[in-house]
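Quick question, first post here. What does this chain look like in 3D?
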Amino acid sequence: MRKTLLIIAALMMMPILLSAQKKDKNKNAQPQQVAEQQVKQNNNIMILLETTLGNIKIQLYDDTPVHTNNFVKLVKDGFYDGILFHRVIEGFMVQTGDPESKTAAPGQQLGSSGPGYTLPAEIVPAHFHKRGAIAAARTGDQGNPMRRSSGSQFYIVHGTVTPAEKLKAYSRYGFEFSDEQLEAYATVGGAPTLDAQYTVFGEVVEGMDVVDKIATADKDRADRPTSDIKIIKASVIN
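> Answer (accepted):
Ran it through. Tokens below.
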């Protein structure tokens, strides 16, 4: 079966793509409880992910209201309880949110399922793929030119440190990084080649040591951990 990892030769990027093996019949449907036209300001909403390897506390952003409100709704509905981290790549990211993973057999390839709808992109230049960033997975540009996000799958950036001079060289491909980005990528690290392509809607504020454990877990050829790592419970804590 084809892996979900794709490489864009020009930048040697590793996009966070949902599997194209199964297409969601309702991929362009809207979430029933999240109207795109309604903008709700969420002041520092915090989510606690209790995982089998420890707790991760994340903060959701105010200026990505569709993604933030949708995530909060799914958390309150218990959608993420029991879901696996189904794809982990050390130095890049850890991905979760596929509801089929709750009952997946060992070795089953995951990454193609969701809640039955997608979300409009909310790509905000101020939010970038620094270490600990939370962003929405999506299908590739060819079949998804508007870069709509999965309704449930997301990833946490593990990342690597990239020298500023190397990042500046990306400008030939249309990448222009701010001073803040250059400093962050050169110090704490991240996944800079994903910027401006995926919606970043939050960040880890506690528990990056847990993300480190998840990212470095033993895995199979499809990047799924050989021993299941799951979100035991997700809760809104603020």
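The first helix runs from residue 65 to 76.
The CA atoms of residues 95 and 155 lie 4 Å apart.
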